Automatic annotation (TrEMBL):
GO molecular-function term, one example from the UniProt record: sequence-specific DNA binding
The organism of origin for this protein: Marinoscillum furvescens DSM 4134
Protein name: AraC-like DNA-binding protein
Domain HTH araC/xylS-type intervals: 186-284
Keyword Transcription: yes
Keywords: DNA-binding, Transcription, Transcription regulation
Gene3D superfamilies (UniProt xref): Homeodomain-like
Amino acid sequence: MSINNLNLSLLHAGKVDLDHHWDFDNVISPFSRLYLITHGQAQVFHSGQTFDLKPGYLYLIPSYTYSRYKCESTFTQYYLSILEESDDQGSIFDHHEFLYEVPAHPNDALILDRILELNDDRMLLNDDPKAYDNVPTMLAYKARNDRMNPGSFLETRGLMTALLSRFIKGKKVTRSVSLKNQEKINNIIRYIRQNLHRELTVAELADEAHLNADYFSRVFFEIVKTRPVKFIQEKRIERAQLLLSTTTYSISEIAAKVGLDNISYFTRLFKKQLGRTPGAYRQSKWQNDI
């Protein structure tokens, strides 16, 4: 995804005092979380790292990232839940390197205060992710963007973009491969996302990249760090998660939309990756009302 095409919308925003009840595991959301800590300490685990939340720092948790939260005493944080309206080129997190902890700028608290002023109806009523990370709640909060004054909507988006800019490092580049091959693989990733609704083979992808199939597989692995077939499977299930969370399509319709017409295979693959069936996943997302 090009930075020029970045499209952010706000779901939740607030400032809250938290304590030892802020202790949650297996949090995986279709939106990103951004925190500014102003008092106390807590911990967040994600992306294979443990982050000690401390005052004066901003923290980022990308969408679809497993995370774990823990607080043993008390702390105070600003929080934003940000939905990225991604296209077939994928998420900004697919194409750019990000830091997840950065020192806050002196005016960041003022920026967050302004976001809260513009969006005073976005505060979460319950800190448990199970209470708000579900389809009815997400759709309700997202619908509030449609009712916003256009100027307030654009200002909110600009302020969120400014905060997100604190974390970005640059485009993902693998130094050991040529820039030409890097561009070819980026194009193939885009091609995969645009064609998840149908069967895809390594031979087809290699042909699209104008590379020998074996050489293509080696280059793809070197850049993406996973095999093409596994990557395709992961992206199919990631797309299925989004559809299960944000639409009322039947499970068989979703399976077809992600290129897995065999519902039994789709269910097995989904459960293998996420540890539960598509039906159980959807139920967990829909079980809590607003």
